[in-house]
Amino acid sequence: MAEDAQSSPFIKNLASSDKRTRDSALASLRAFLSSRSEISELDLLKLWKGLFYCLWMQDKPAHQQALSRSPR
């Protein structure tokens, strides 16, 4: 399972400075999570780190709030 998450490009792309790349990575992440029934702790830590940087790369606090509240 750790290899699946590591080889998935969305983890690296979550921290991209390009908004389109981040949005695409979030869409891929949603699909990935909906297809998995179990995820290892290591994979969850990697995903957490990617999501942290995804929020960090947002330009303004209002954008961070919108992303964190997004139901998509």
Automatic annotation (TrEMBL):
- Print the keywords alphabetically: Nucleus, rRNA processing
Where does it sit, as one GO cellular component term? nucleus
Task: Give the GO biological process terms.
Answer: rRNA processing
Q: Where in the cell is it found?
A: Nucleus
Pfam families per record: Nop52 (PF05997)
Reply yes or no: does the keyword Oxidoreductase apply: no
| Primary location class | nucleus
Q: Which domain of life is it from?
A: Eukaryota
Q: Which InterPro entries match?
A: RRP1
Family that this chain belongs to:
Belongs to the RRP1 family.
Under which name does UniProt file this protein? Uncharacterized protein
**Which classification does the entry list for the species?**
Eukaryota, Fungi, Dikarya, Ascomycota, Pezizomycotina
